[in-house]
Automatic annotation (TrEMBL):
Compartments where located: Membrane
Official protein name in the record: Mitochondrial inner membrane translocase subunit Tim17/Tim22/Tim23/peroxisomal protein PMP24
GO molecular function: protein transmembrane transporter activity
GO biological process terms, semicolon-separated: protein import into mitochondrial matrix
Pfam families per the UniProt record, alphabetical: Tim17
Keyword Secreted: no
Record keywords, A-Z: Membrane, Transmembrane, Transmembrane helix
Length: 186
């Protein structure tokens, strides 16, 4: 039946397209097109779990840290490469300078933030295990500890300042997450 020959008065609503409609296939195949929107899990224990495992946290935080650090570092390095261009250079030489600078900074920043994500995920998962509860305090303590551990080699004063900055960052992240859940319709 062609699209133009349909009469909207005779048909209540349009059906979903089914390429097997003329084959008289039994009903279970027809349910294939009515897919659920909720996640399907193999075991009921997975449905009751409301947080990622420590391994998933490790991959998530380390990956997010590396990718965001590499992106920010590449942008910063590229900007520095553009500023460092000298008069009389060819376009090829300027492009080479920008790419080299962006690649060097991107790798350095990516590795640094990846390590921060690795430390944070280990501390947060360890605190959940030790305290026996998963709450906001674990995230804040993990942020404090991450800053302190990351800058510990620079001395106690630097570690204390970095720990405070890590704690403030963790509080900001938790507050932002709660505000996003409340005010952003998803």
């Amino acid at each position: 039946m062609a699209e133009s020959s349909r009469n909207p008065k005779t048909e209540q609503k349009y059906r979903q397209y089914n390429p097997y409609q003329d084959l008289n296939i039994p009903t279970p195949i027809r349910n294939l097109y009515n897919l659920p929107t909720s996640p399907e899990l193999l075991f009921q224990e997975e449905a009751a779990k409301n947080r990622r495992s420590w391994g998933e946290n490790l991959q998530f935080y380390t990956g997010i840290g590396f990718l965001s650090g590499a992106t920010l570092g590449a942008l910063h390095g590229s900007y520095k490469g553009i500023l460092a261009a000298e008069a009389g250079e060819t376009l090829k030489l300027r492009l080479n300078r920008v790419l080299n600078s962006g690649g060097a900074k991107g790798g350095k920043f990516g590795n640094s933030l990846g390590i921060v994500g690795l430390i944070f995920s280990g501390l947060e998962s360890g605190l959940v295990y030790l305290r026996g509860s998963d709450d906001v305090l674990n995230t804040i303590l993990a942020g404090l500890g991450t800053g302190a551990i990351y800058r510990a080699a620079s001395g106690p004063r630097s570690a204390a300042i970095a720990g405070a900055l890590g704690g403030i960052t963790a509080v900001a992240a938790v507050a932002g997450k709660h505000m996003a859940k409340r005010y952003v319709p998803i």
